[in-house]
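Below is a filled-in request sheet from our internal design queue. Each sheet records the structural input a requester submitted and the sequence that came back. We keep these sheets so that new team members can see what a complete request looks like end to end.

REQUESTER: design group, bay 2
PRIORITY: normal
MODE: inverse folding
CHAIN LENGTH: 290
BACKBONE (tokenized):
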């Protein structure tokens, strides 16, 4: 490749590099730097505080609550959304009458805005006249306020995420299932292999690259999606649904403590980086790309 082609190549890549640096790397570096300072307010400039903001986290009960809630929320939504999406993909991978309609029904929650999904589920959860309460009353069970009670609020919010995410992940699993050669299924049928054995010995290993991709996205979404928290609970009741990203928003934009919010953001990025890298290293031996 001559020098002119190199110049053309770099010129084509330049806009992407500019946007990547301006909107990803530069804000990340700025956030890391701001986390070591206090928040500038009015004429009072920011003062270097070192690890002061990080020390403050250890003494902040809301931060501890947000971390615990985020861990529980992730532990529920990640495996549940992956398992449900895989089950849905296995179901619609077969050929039967109305399979296109079923696929569309499974995928429909994905195309809905999360704000709209949250409002739909608020109606489902509404005590007294909501869909879930109407079903409970039919069986003689008492009314329940799912998002208004600390014991059930977080699980109610997690259910919305699972319902929203499962259809999206199903598309990837369905695409992976369609790449499995039909000859393997025919050979397994001739050998008398059961469906469970074929799934465990053949299907699951062959779709591991997709499973890894979906799991990484599920982890990111578990910490990134908080729109439904804004609509449904606003972190309540009694911080029962206070997730880390929502706490960052409240700290930075409601209480205007941008330095502390920057430190919280650094912690969030560090958690996602460690978990993401750990997923790749732990799953690498079980992933077959060919």
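RETURNED SEQUENCE:
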């Amino acid at each position: 490749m001559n020098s002119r082609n190199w110049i053309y190549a770099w010129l084509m890549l330049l806009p992407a590099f500019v946007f990547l640096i301006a909107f990803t790397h530069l804000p990340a570096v700025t956030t890391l730097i701001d986390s070591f300072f206090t928040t500038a307010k009015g004429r009072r400039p920011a003062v270097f505080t070192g690890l002061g903001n990080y020390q403050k986290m250890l003494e902040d009960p809301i931060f501890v609550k947000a971390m615990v809630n985020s861990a529980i929320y992730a532990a529920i939504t990640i495996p549940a959304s992956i398992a449900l999406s895989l089950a849905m993909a296995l179901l619609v991978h077969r050929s039967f009458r109305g399979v296109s309609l079923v696929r569309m029904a499974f995928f429909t929650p994905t195309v809905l805005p999360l704000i709209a999904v949250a409002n739909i589920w608020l109606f489902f959860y509404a005590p007294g006249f909501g869909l879930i309460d109407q079903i409970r009353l039919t069986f003689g069970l008492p009314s329940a306020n799912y998002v208004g009670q600390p014991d059930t609020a977080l699980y109610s919010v997690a259910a919305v995420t699972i319902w929203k995410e499962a259809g999206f992940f199903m598309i990837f699993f369905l695409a992976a299932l369609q790449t499995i050669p039909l000859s393997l299924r025919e050979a397994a049928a001739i050998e008398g292999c059961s469906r469970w054995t074929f799934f465990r010995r053949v299907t699951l290993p062959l779709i591991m690259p997709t499973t890894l991709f979906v799991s990484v996205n599920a982890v990111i979404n578990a910490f990134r999606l908080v729109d439904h928290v804004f609509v449904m609970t606003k972190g309540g009741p009694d911080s029962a649904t206070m997730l880390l990203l929502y706490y960052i928003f409240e700290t930075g934009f409601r209480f205007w403590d941008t330095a502390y919010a920057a430190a919280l953001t650094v912690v969030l990025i560090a958690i996602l980086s460690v978990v993401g890298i750990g997923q790749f290293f732990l799953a690498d031996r079980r992933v077959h790309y060919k």
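SHEET NOTES:
- The CA atoms of residues 28 and 43 lie 26 Å apart.
- Residues 57-286 form a domain with the MetI-like fold fold (CATH 1.10.3720.10).
FILED BY: M.R.
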